Amino acid sequence: MNRETGVSLRVQTITVLAVSLLLFHLVSLVLFVYFSASTATLAREEQLAQRIATVTGFMEGVPATYRDYLAAELSGPGFEVTIGTEPVSETIDKSSDSHSDNIAGLVDRMLRKKPGDISTRYQTSDEAADMQAASVIIQRIEGLFNIQETLLVSVALTNGTWLNFRTSGSTWGHILSASAIPSLSLMAIGVILLAAWAVNRPLRSLSRFALASETMGRDVLGAQPLDEQGPRELRDAARAFNRMQRQVQRLLQSRNQMLGAVSHDFRTPLTRLRLRAESIVDDTQRDKAIRDIEEMEQMIALTLAYARDDSVEEAREPLELDQVIESVIESMDCRARCEFRAATPGLIVECQRSAMRRVIQNIIENALNYAGELAISTGRDASGITIDFDDAGPGIAEDQREKVFLPFYRVESSRNRASGGAGFGLAIAQTVVEAHGGRISMQTSPQGGLRVHIVLPAALQYPGSPAG
Asked: How far apart are CA 9 and CA 22, in angstroms?
């Protein structure tokens, strides 16, 4: 089965579901962080101010000789305490911000210090003055998920020294951190698997629809009904398809029955005409009348054969294409005028033997009638198994190459069958080829005449396939 390139509906549906859910999750997470950031910040500020006030009050109550030792003991990860003669927050030439001002206000209310006894400075990771180039890159990548902050707080003690605090941590890290990547990855995998499971069953039913339609196109009377399973909409579609298929099958069966009756009704008066013609005394007139009756019988037979398409009831079987062509050439006794070459020997096609022989015979007859000689070649390419019929005759104009496949159409205007036939050969050939899932077209031959190009789907390479 030939399929057009492109993204399948299954992949599109899964991609849309997965991307939509992931984006929704990310947007929800960002909104949650945004609206909860202020509350979380106030809580952290109050907790930090309480800790600074507690340490400051404790330091005021111990002798100055023990303060350096106690500062080192009270320090820990993310919270550094030092004693100095100057406030460390004033060594960085940066303007204050609301975060550091809030800390200063909270500490001031807790300690009731004089104005100027508390100095604060808030610093993000990008503002650190001692970063190396490599660490800047690393921290900025990490900063996408974890924004680092450093808060410098200096409180004046009663003896004139300064108690300096350096706190560090993350603002968003507890909510949006690098650990979110595995979570999002697991969710993406889960969404893709669930989406694949959810869409696979209805899409598999759609694939059955496509296969059933193609099967019906090739063999209407032999097509089987679809299983009416799946969601309600697919069951309704399957029922409608089966109903249409039954109606088409009944129509074709009725047509075949009607054509059989018409064929019988035509033969009876023609037989009477032949008997009367044979009683004509004049030999010349008698021969002309008999030839006209024979021509009429042949045209009626061709018309009924095309309309009835007897091949629909013929079983398909794997055949070796080269042997089918050889047998047709042999039966037509035209080997002297037909050159056959198999570029890829042993090509197998699954087809109706009599129908395929009829196609090959019709094309050979047309070529020999108009060109006198013919070259036949078979091969295989990406489209399937190919058959080319090349002649060096007058060819057919491009604007008429589609029309010659119509019943009764002939390139020459006369209706004399001795010069051009009834115009059914190529019409029957196209019907049979398309019923086998192939296509037939006309091109300009390398020999200067006409090329009839046939493409058939390849069958499995069955060993010992029968000849034509």
From this structure: 20
Reported as a single tens digit per residue, the pLDDT across 400-459 is: 888 888 877 776 543 344 445 556 778 888 888 988 889 999 999 998 899 999 999 886
- Give kind and range of the element (H or E) at residue 338: strand 338-342
pLDDT tens per residue across span 189-228? 877 787 777 777 777 777 787 788 877 776 777 778 888 8
Q: Among 212, 234, 237, 236, which Cα is nearest to 225's? A: 212
Same structural domain, 321 and 443: yes
User: Are 353 and 368 found together in one domain?
Assistant: yes
Give residue-wise pLDDT tens across range 296-327.
777 777 666 666 555 455 778 899 999 999 99
Helix, strand, or coil here: 316? coil
Give the C-alpha separation, 288 to 378, whole Å.
Answer: 43
The one-letter amino acid code at 253 reads Q
Range of the domain at 241: 232-308
Helix/strand/coil for 416:
coil
Burial letters for 4-18: b for 16+ Cβ neighbours within 10 Å, e otherwise?
A: eeeeeebeebbeebb
Bin 369: left if φ > 0, else alpha if -120 < ψ < 50, else beta: alpha
Phi and psi at 258, nearest 5°, equal -65, -45
Residues 328 and 358 in one domain: yes
**C-alpha separations of 187 from 196, 297, 328 in Å:** 14, 75, 64
Same domain (yes/no): 23, 148:
yes
pLDDT at 32: 72
Q: Give yes or no: residues 364 and 442 share one domain.
A: yes
Could you report the per-residue pLDDT of 28-50, keeping only the tens digit for each? Answer: 777 776 676 667 677 777 888 88
Say which residue the tokens 């198999």 belong to. 342
Question: DSSP per residue over 84-152, as a string?
Answer: ESS-GGGGS-----HHHHHHHHHHHHHH-PPTTSEEEEEEEGGG-TT--HHHHHHHHHHHTT--EEEEE
pLDDT at 172 over 70: no
> Could you tell me which residues are beta bridge partners of residue 118?
155
Q: Give the three-state DSSP class for 189.
A: helix
3-state secondary structure of 464: coil
Q: What is the pTM of this model?
A: 0.48
Task: Say if 225 falls within a structural domain.
Answer: no
Range ranked top by mean pLDDT from 99-103, 255-259, 357-361, 404-408: 357-361
